[in-house]
Design brief:
Elements lengths: L3 H29 L12 H4 L4 H35 L3 H16 L1 H5 L5 H26 L1
Amino acid sequence: MKHAHKVAWILFAVLAAMTILFSLLSMAAAYGNPGNDMIAARYTPIEVANGDEDLAAALSARRGTAAAYGLGYGLLLLGMTLAYRRERRFLGWIVAAGLVNAVVILLRVPALGVHYGLFAGTAPLALVVIAAALGCADRRSTAG
């Protein structure tokens, strides 16, 4: 696996860039145009809040907070990816962060009975697992 390390860090960088982009889009929906922010792809916050503007604002604020944490995670992942690219460090931390992210997202099914957003937990984890496997394979081939 001659280029496994390169493919691994590129996959991590793509995941970081996607996380940053989707977080910025979510933040724009929450803060920029909360009237068009869709919940469960069907309702706006004002519809869910049954006309209560304070509750609608709180719903948009929750999305803004989630977007902020997503943005922070994406930037941290990008920084770790750049360190991994140069020094092959942080692979375990990147995998741990991806697993924790996925588990918390997937907990919505047993805890809330909600299936919306499961792709947001499984797709990034799939990229993390693929990239980590390539990174591990590359470490084995360069170690011996």
